[in-house]
Amino acid sequence: MTRRPLPLAAAFAARAGERPSDPALVWEGRTTGYGELYAMACRARQQVEAAAAPYPGRPVGLRVRKSPEAVALVLGCLMAGRGFLLPSHELPDLPLKELYEQAGCAVVLGLAGDPLVDVVVDPSAPAACGGTGQPRPPAEVAEDATGFLLTTSGSTGLPKIVPLSQGAVARFTAWAADAFALAPGSTVLNYAPLNFDLCLLDVWSTLAHGGTVVLADPERGTSARYLHGLVADHRVTLVQGVPLLFELLSRAAAESGPLTTPEHLVFAGEAMPARVLAGLPPAFPHARWFNNYGCTETNNSFLYEVDRTRPVTAPLPIGSPLPGVHWLVTGDDGRALTGPGQGELLVSTPFQTTGYANVPNGGKFAPHPDGTPGVVYYRSGDVVLRHEDGSLSVLGRTDHMVKVRGTQVSTQHVESILLEHPAVAEAAVVALPDPVAGHRLHARVRLTEPGSAGVLALRQHCAERTVRAAVPSVFETVSQPLPRTSTGKVDRNRIRESLSTARP
């Protein structure tokens, strides 16, 4: 019989008790040991319990930026058995306030004065860990009790609130430790903001299994030299992130030398462009590569290890389902494909949410007549191609699929074509309304060097690789980096809004 994994707070407390002097966090040149971080979490727990005592059973809101104190506050909430909403600190006050209200947050906690913060928490303040001066064990929690409440990106409006149960997080951390050999001595780079679901692997799974988390400062998240220094100086063994991170590290490695300590590279968030993949071998000579597929609602679903002995081509497949994952692909008629074809991917994982906390699920979570009986599937919104051998490749998202002159086009696919051009450093393709064609495609492109490719060359490059309707009507070349979201993805909404505003 498989043993139930420990809840995250209990697993962390056990590591702190076993090896208190081991490094838990590295931040701005300062190392925080497991014993010290546990003491900070105990203090945060007391303050969380005091602030939330009048509101039993309700979650708390957090308003934090990445730091050891922020990590301690999250752990303090978990040790207290309190669910907590952890949104992006970059959200404006009005949507943040609405999210806290929709989640039913009893009180908003933060590390500094802020108009939305009801109680300031100081994990470094002197305080006993328990009434007798002895640390109290983490509160016992039911497997289905809510721990993290994360949010989606909000690309279509107010972010959706995604509650994750204590059991789901515990199962995820156990899987992650097995998949990537997380243990004392592992050192993991954390590039994503704390509210991003990638942190379930690179922060929380690492701390649950005794590894060291190297926290990257989001304010310096585009500095290639800074990021290279973190990986090299702290002998990082696992790097997970969006393509931008690997592009920056490869660029710095070309100037400052290869990064020889990483054993695992985990690609997440967006499809890896061929150009970025080509720069990885000299930058990371000893690492295994993994393409990780998942989303906030389900967490990881599929994993593909790249065979480095064969030519690597983009886009990478999403690989095999993780243990316990059920999946199917539905065609236009809503029925599951039994052979090759194209359709929407539906998945069910041991780590997924049961539904959104602030909006109707609208059929996003439901059983499927062609699926495994009793299993609730999440409609991913990803359009995939099922090949003859049963393997899957992601073509794009349903919300990136548009009709141009009657032809269905994936803007993400057009972006991937542009990124194959050697002169293209970044590309974003957005669809704008058109009274005749339905939509017209606008490509914004940053070149590796000014003037290294003209509009005609870019248009011909696309025309040779896709249907006529998918060739953008407009190619706009820019010299500045494309806008990014807090998680490092290209912010297509801002590009679309700027184009809409600029139209007469």
Automatic annotation (TrEMBL):
Protein name in UniProt: Acyl-coenzyme A synthetase/AMP-(Fatty) acid ligase
A single GO molecular function term of this UniProt record: phosphopantetheine binding
GO terms, biological process: amino acid activation for nonribosomal peptide biosynthetic process; secondary metabolite biosynthetic process
Entries under SUPFAM superfamilies matching the protein: Acetyl-CoA synthetase-like (SSF56801)
Segments forming a coiled coil: none
Residues of the AMP-dependent synthetase/ligase domain: 12-356
Keywords, alphabetical: Ligase
Any single Gene Ontology cellular-component annotation: cytoplasm
Superkingdom as given in the UniProt entry: Bacteria
Limits of the AMP-binding enzyme C-terminal domain: 414-489
Gene3D superfamilies: 3.30.300.30, N-terminal domain of ligase-like
Annotated segments matching region Disordered: 480-504
